[in-house]
């Protein structure tokens, strides 16, 4: 659950609808109306792995976790300012574009896709975002 904060404090965002952090970090932090979502690998909310699944399955899971964290923070796809995606293999870029467009709908935040040689636990995709919350 999110802890309340005054506008000058940082709050930590947590939801059971996304995997618990495996290290010393929060799923997201917020300061005033800005939300910074930590990199989300394609782990399921219960912590089980999808690294043995096809790229599309992993991309959907990573984005679903990101969107669940944003929802907990009082935000959503239309309020995302910037996304950074790390993908293993340039050949996965078209699949990422397709899944990303399906899951974000009309939202078109600024975005960077960074091809990388590998990710932790053998995952093929990781996404992070900066968004605005509130109405």
From TrEMBL:
Gene3D superfamilies: RutC-like. It comes from the Bacteria. One of its GO terms (cellular component) is cytosol. It holds the Pfam family Ribonuc_L-PSP. One of its GO terms (molecular function) is deaminase activity. Belongs to the RutC family. This is 2-iminobutanoate/2-iminopropanoate deaminase. It comes from Methylobacterium frigidaeris.
